[in-house]
Design brief:
alpha+beta, 2 helices, 3-stranded antiparallel beta sheet, globular, about 70 residues
């Protein structure tokens, strides 16, 4: 299994950050690397999420499926 760990300090309450990060329809507006995001259940620890990136010059899309920790 591949693990990617990232940390950032954000000057906002956790609830505000969570609301922004889980507003999946708005993600492409501020993150052009994301075409769509779909959660496979309620957004909580253990839920799988599918991220889809834009098509490359060969027509392929990048997909990855992390688990919410």
């Amino acid at each position: 299994m591949f693990t990617l760990h990232t940390e950032r300090t954000i000057a906002a309450p956790p609830e505000v950050v969570w609301d922004v990060l889980t507003d999946f329809p708005a993600q492409p507006e501020w993150n052009p690397s994301i075409v769509s995001i779909v959660a496979e259940g309620p957004l909580q620890a253990g839920t799988r999420i599918t991220f889809v990136g834009p098509r490359n010059d060969k027509g392929a899309t990048m997909r990855f499926r992390p688990t919410v920790l």
